[in-house]
Amino acid sequence: MTDGTTADAPAALREPTRDEPRAAVRSKRMSLVAACLRKAAGWRLLEPEVLGLEQLVRPGDVCVDVGAAYGMYSYPLAHLVGPLGAVHSFEPQRKAHALQRAGSALAGAGRIHLTRSGVGRVAGEAEIVLPIRFGLPIHGHAHIGDGLVEPSRPSRWHSRTKRIRVPVTTIDEVCAARGIERVHFIKVDVEGFEPGVVQGAAEVIRRDRPSLLLEIEDRHLERYATTAADFAASLLALGYAMHVWRAGRWQRVDRVERGTRNYLFATDAAWGRTA
Fold first, then answer.
1. pLDDT tens-digit profile of 98-109?
2. Which residues contact 208 (CB under 8 A, 6 or more apart)?
């Protein structure tokens, strides 16, 4: 039997009582959201690589989520870095950004720093190409229009496209402007523009050697006259080793594999710090 007070609400969702710090309730909410996303990843309703984040990210870390969409990676990362860490989350699309901002407020995820912006090789502005199908936008297939080998054309996945002008920053510029002294983990999913994002993080990669979780697929990269093999080789040349999430663990591979979308690039030091 309830009397309608906050004490009767689920512990992770209710407002704090007079004797309970607000930060404690926010932490419980964040843990609940992260647990739900991990469970969905375990059922393969979300990208399974979410389950492997805890092997690389520690409390107090600083992470960057480029192409954050609705926060599939931002929330689990925020849970892992804890109150002393930070997740800098970038999403240029208005609707996706607004929904993640609302979700972050509900979850009490103050450690997620949201920015409505694209990320690339240079700061400025760019056009995003947003596919439209049956009159509805396909936000997950939106991509940067600058640098395309040829304009996006109608396909079986969409009948037309819409172009949206958005601000663009770089990871190097963000770190300099925000005084970020070290980055531990960077995730990038931007439908083929991943090489541009990496180029704009050259100084951070040189300085910090962060782990990189990148979508690498020829079908997206070819828009920008790049191949998956060449992109992966450029990262291996920097001293990274390449891994895929398989059978519940990160497994090292030496080449891009058919049917695998996401690849982790990590140094030996990245594994050592989680031991």
1. 999 998 887 767
2. 182, 183, 184
> In angstroms, rounded to a whole number, what is the distance separating the alpha carbons of residues 186 and 75?
14
Domains observed in the chain = 26-118+168-272 (3.40.50.150)
Q: Judge whether 48 and 42 are in contact, CB under 8 Å.
A: yes
> DSSP character for 155?
B
Which residues, including other chains, have CB under 8 Å from residue 153's CB and lie 6 or more apart? none
Which pairing describes strands 112-115 and 86-90: parallel, antiparallel, or unpaired? parallel
Instruction: Using the structure block, give the residue that is written with the tokens 């891994």.
Output: 243
Kindly report the pTM of this predicted structure: 0.88
Report the distance separating Cα 189 and Cα 213, nearest Å. Answer: 8
211-243 residue pLDDT tens: 999 999 999 999 999 999 999 999 999 999 999
Q: Report percent pLDDT > 90 for the chain.
A: 69
